[in-house]
Amino acid sequence: MKNLFRNAGADIPASIVVFLVALPLCLGVAVASDAAPVTGIVAGIIGGIVIGALSGSQLSVSGPAAGLTAIVAGAIGKLDSYSVFLLSVVLAGGLQLLFGFLKAGMIGEFIPNAVIKGMLAAIGLILILKQLPHFVGYDADPEGDETFIQPDNQNTFSELLNAFNYISAGAIIIALIATAILLVYETKTIKQQRIFQLIPGPLIVVAAGIGVNQLFLQSFPQFALSGDHLVKLDVFDKPTDFVAALPSPSFAGITNAQVWITAITLAIVASLETLLSIEAVDKIDPQKRISPTNRELKAQGVGNIVSGMLGGLPVTSVIVRSSANVSAGAKSKLSSIMHGILLMLSVLFFADYLNLIPKASLAAILIFTGYKLAKIKLFTEHYRKGWDQFLPFIITVIAILLSDLLIGILIGMVVGMYFVLRSNFKSAIFFIKDEHRYLIRFRKEVSFLNKALMKGILESIPDGTSVLVDATKSDFIDRDIIDMVNDFIINAETRGIKVYIKFSNSASKSFFHDNKMVID
Questions:
Q1: What integer is the mean pLDDT of 63-90?
Q2: Is residue 519's pLDDT more than 60?
Q3: CA atoms within 13 A on the CB side of 158
Q4: What is the DSSP letter of 464?
Q5: pLDDT digits (tens, 9 = 90+) for 111-147
């Protein structure tokens, strides 16, 4: 417990920032999922407190995820009731717990670095593009909407253009003031002041937004914001009313096949999104700590069991909240736990005050977070690394922008794996010519995937030359490659080609055809 509070000076201010980011997102994801707003808040509380306490990640923040909204909305529509859907959430948590014990977390290790960086950049751009309408006062879509095609049949770009037909002068003024405060907080002078290290910039932004809007209400009503322009949190007279509003899972649906299909779908998608988020958070962790992925799956499993039992939406590790946590200077998991506690306190005691927050202020915070994730420097760095790094990176960015997180990542992984395999093809076999002599050197592992490359090399060797096949550095040579070399050796004498073989061990000698010269 003592170690948990060791970095409280950094974690508690960071938790306030994450809370301010998470609050509208929890509500937005619930609305986009066709569920009651309180279910999103419950999921956020569980993601913060329960998963935060059990997770091995120091900076990841969990909660209801935009990537699951389509699955959740579809499942709620197909099942008999929301209570039956909650049973799917509980079962999905149990499956995730099983995944953790089966050590399925290793899947995250196979995602290329360029794809992870592309995902971070894409999330940053999505935050900017999706929050710009809220920045100018167009609040028709929920904050949790991150997919390209939106519920109103608009897409990211058409919605952005449409927003400029509904500009609110008051929202723009508040958003610009918020942006100015955040920019000032980034200056070296402010960063050196101890007082400003304890009071996070986003908290000042929210307070200023409330204050300016109250001024508008009193003196400039034409600029005042109300209704959809403000946070909408359910107000409960007392804590028992909040508890009474929470639905419970219906175990009567345990024999319903659709319940199990939904549970399996949620478990797989939520686990993939979590592993992607954990991998990405580790990349931006200033201390470069490595999170135990199997422990994370277990924590997520427990979190979803608890969330389903208490009436909440399914949860995953969420990169938006996690990146805001890193950006706010969090050092440990205390920040995630405290953000969950703040969500709980807010819905129990402070809903009236939180409903005064203009969405334009929160939009400025999220746009600023997005800018930090998608800086131009990130794009130029990958361009300088070469096409094998830049193409997986930029294709992942574009694919996520034009679809959603999981589809975009899958496309990026296909492209990334192509370049990995292409690199392995080239590095597995070294080929060089010196006048009438040729060298073919097999490196560490030569698999059947190198057949096309090997065939091209052997076909390029002219008659009347000599060839040295060096296998001393190879730990493994696929049988298909050996057969191809043996066929070449058999035909070499008729073409006047002399073939020499160097072996790494005596066992390798038996693999190749006898009609060659051995060099020990």
A1: 91
A2: no
A3: 9
A4: T
A5: 888 998 999 999 899 989 999 999 999 988 776 667 7
Please give the average per-residue pLDDT across 301-312, as a whole number: 97
Q: How far apart are CA 413 and CA 417, in angstroms?
A: 6
Task: Tokens for 428, please give them.
Answer: 């597995």
Helix (H), strand (E) at residue 430: strand 429-434
Report helix, strand and coil shares of the chain as percent, to nearest 5: 65, 10, 25
Question: CB-hemisphere CA count at 13 Å for 376?
Answer: 0
List of domains in the chain: 10-384 (no CATH), 387-425 (no CATH), 435-519 (3.30.750)
Are 278 and 57 contacting, i.e. CB atoms less than 8 angstroms apart? Answer: yes
> Under a CB-based contact definition with an 8 Å cutoff, are residues 360 and 174 in contact?
yes
pLDDT in tens, 201-247: 999 999 999 999 999 999 999 999 999 999 988 888 888 888 888 89
Distance between CA atoms of residues 136 and 120, nearest Å: 25
- Distance of alpha carbon 337 from the chain centroid: 20
Token reading at 25: 């997102």
246 three-state secondary structure? coil
Are residues 343 and 23 in contact, defined by beta-carbon separation less than 8 angstroms? yes
pLDDT in tens, 248-264: 999 999 999 999 999 99
What pLDDT does residue 1 have? 54
* CA pair distance 212, 138, nearest whole angstrom: 18
Cβ(87)–Cβ(308) below 8 Å: yes
Helix (H) or strand (E) holding 21: helix 8-32
Gap between the Cα atoms of 258 and 37, Å rounded:
24
Q: Beta 466-470 vs 498-502: how paired, if at all?
A: parallel
Bigger pLDDT: 370 or 473? Answer: 370
